[in-house]
Design a protein that fits this description.
The protein has helices spanning 3-38, 44-71, 75-94, 98-110, 114-125, 131-156, 173-192, 216-231, 246-249, 251-254, 269-272, 276-287, 290-320, 325-349, 355-376, 384-416, 422-445, 451-471, 479-490; strands at 161-163, 166-168, 200-203, 206-209. The chain has 493 residues and is mainly alpha-helical. It is globular, with a radius of gyration of 25 Å. The two termini are 27 Å apart.
Length: 493
């Protein structure tokens, strides 16, 4: 099978993985509140159940990402992670007690850690200028799952039969259904996923494209021309000014070790080895930079607000509009259509506009949404139709800003962090998001009766993020991509 066909099938399988993650969210979220009520759980268990899924994903994400960086493989990691999804969803189906249900979400959450390896793989196998488009497509697959999920709920809610010692009803059926889907996905990964080589990878003495068809002898002949340039190239993410051409003309310089004469600002982690010392230095150098801190803060605050509002929605619709699982499923279906349209628009916009502009637009929409919810949803007034209209507008604004922030911050993060350790870096980013999806439901689950406090903190966090982005706006660029491209041209690519 040729390379292009393998790449297409691999990307298709990645799309299936994110599609199933969206379906799982969509079939479980509308029913988990009533499911917990049938098991005698207190209201705060809703927040615990939603947070448990994120907790183990937070812990497993960096681990799986680090493994993919070390082994340069993702297939085995995905197969291993999916086993936890299968077992966790079967535990959810059993549903003997609220504690077993809580444990089921903990186990299933471990499987989400494979996403770090996948994002690292996508970063290594795509060109920087195409990364926003690829990430938007992958995220749209998850939103497509959120769109399809409620449709499955339409027939899952009709289940009412016995399967051996287990009862299959509208609350337990989603667990059994997802267990079967994740099992089928294992087969798809086995037969349709390949650890294809990255698009670019350093070869010999310079950054050269893998699989470009050049013979090893040709590379050996090119070493005298590009060898000295290799020593002055910094790591991905560093800006290095090349030495004048005298470095290739002066034989004295060509016979000595260049790094002591013109050392790069930072050691190339991928070329110096994978020692723990280098890894430790790389972490402090990359994750404590101002622009990285801003993007990680954006990841945390937007996901915190999103999951807090999602946790609030089902109790709120039950209290004011008497919505059941059918109405909630339809609501999530409509929201998914809006989000998919938003991702498609962002995919088009990202080719014409800088990511930081897209991020700024998303933050403006999120601020407007939070202000609206604070004014109209904290204490709904008026007739029921007017209250419903206020609720719809608030949800619409919240969902509208999500694609802008999500795509922009992921794409920017992948460009300003080292390409050599993308799996681990994406794991850190997803762990920060995991913290948000833990604290968000916990915060909202305990304050469903005091929305002013709940929404007030969300507004403060958004204002803080907006101020941080305003002062760091000039740094939210991807100089590493430009320098990398220029260096590649100098190396003869």
């Amino acid at each position: 099978m040729d390379y292009k066909r393998k790449k297409k099938m691999t990307y298709f399988t990645i799309g299936l993985i994110f599609l199933l993650s969206g379906i799982e969210y969509a079939v479980i979220l509308p029913t988990i509140w009533r499911y917990l009520q049938t098991l005698g759980a207190a209201p705060y268990f809703l927040g615990l159940g939603l947070s448990a899924f994120s907790l183990t994903g937070l812990l497993s994400g960096p681990l799986f990402g680090h493994l993919s960086d070390k082994t340069h493989t993702t297939k085995k990691i995905i197969l291993f992670a999916n086993l936890f999804e299968i077992v966790g969803n079967f535990m959810y189906f059993m549903g003997y007690s609220k504690w077993l249900l809580l444990s089921s979400r903990l186990v299933a959450g471990i499987g989400t850690g494979a996403g770090s390896s996948i994002f690292g793989f996508l970063t290594r196998s795509t060109a920087p200028e195409d990364r926003s488009t690829v990430f938007a497509a992958v995220m749209a697959c998850r939103q497509a799952g959120l769109l399809i999920g409620p449709a499955f709920n339409l027939f899952l809610r009709l289940c009412d039969f016995q399967l051996g010692p287990f009862v299959v009803n509208k609350y337990t059926a989603p667990g059994l259904f997802m267990c079967l889907l994740w099992t089928l996905l294992q087969l798809a990964v086995v037969f349709m996923y390949w650890d294809i080589p990255p698009q670019e990878e350093p070869v010999g003495e310079g950054d050269r494209e893998v699989g470009d068809g050049e013979e090893e002898e040709e590379e050996e002949e090119g070493k005298p021309l590009i060898g000295p340039r290799h020593d002055i190239l910094g790591s991905y993410g560093s800006v290095v000014t090349p030495e004048p051409p005298r470095s290739t003309a002066d034989p004295a310089i060509s016979n000595v070790n260049l790094p002591p004469l013109s050392p790069p600002p930072s050691p190339p982690p991928g070329e110096e080895g994978d020692s723990s010392h280098v890894k430790s230095f790389s972490m402090s150098r990359e994750f404590l930079r101002e622009e990285v801190v801003v993007l990680l803060t954006a990841q945390f605050i937007t996901l915190f607000n999103q999951t807090a509002l999602e946790t609030m929605v089902t109790p709120l619709t039950q209290q004011y509009f008497n919505f059941g699982e059918l109405e909630n499923s339809i609501m999530y279906c409509i929201c998914s259509v809006e989000v998919i349209a938003g991702f498609l628009f962002v995919r088009w916009l990202s080719r014409r506009t800088a990511e930081r502009v897209v991020l700024a637009v998303g933050l403006i929409l999120c601020n407007i949404s939070c202000v609206w919810c604070l004014i109209f949803l904290a204490n709904p007034q008026g007739t029921p139709p007017w209250q419903l209209a206020e609720f719809i507008i608030g949800v619409f604004l919240q969902v509208l800003g999500l694609p802008f922030v999500a795509v922009a911050q992921v794409s920017l993060f992948s460009k300003i962090t080292s390409e050599k350790t993308q799996g681990f870096s994406q794991g850190v980013r997803r762990s920060v998001g995991g913290l948000a999806t833990i604290f968000g439901p916990l915060w909202a689950g305990g304050l469903t009766g005091n929305l002013y406090v709940m929404l007030g903190l969300m507004m403060v966090l958004l204002a803080l993020l907006t101020i941080m982005m305003f002062f760091s706006y000039e740094r939210l660029v991807e100089p590493a991509v430009v320098e990398h491209a220029e260096s590649s041209e100098d190396c003869g690519e």
